[in-house]
Amino acid sequence: VQLQASGGGLVQAGGSLRLSCAASGRTFSSYSVGWFRQAPGKEREFVAGISRSGGRTAYADSVKGRFTISRDNAKNMASLQMNSLKPGDTAVYYCAADSADWPSMNQHEYDDWGQGTLVTVSS
Length: 123
Description:
Number of strands: 11
Radius of gyration: 13 Å
Order of helices and strands: EEEEEEEEEEE
């Protein structure tokens, strides 16, 4: 499946952004979706994941209560709503698809990746 992430930008601390991940090429509902991020000089890390149907979600501790992942299989779209953003959230954000149903926190489980969208949070 081909993925395209969008919605990144510059926001002040405490603000919100909504990232989108548009899918094409294969049946989107056959894939769980994960969001990952990579800050400058750091390893890529798991942010949030959602199962094929959207019934199960998983979050990194650092974003629980602030970020919400969702999906609309009819529109072949997944989203990441990010609230109460902090400068530490600054990173390139990637969406990824995994043929397994459970949204894995392990990036190596994911088969397909979008190109990334930059989120910058100023203090």
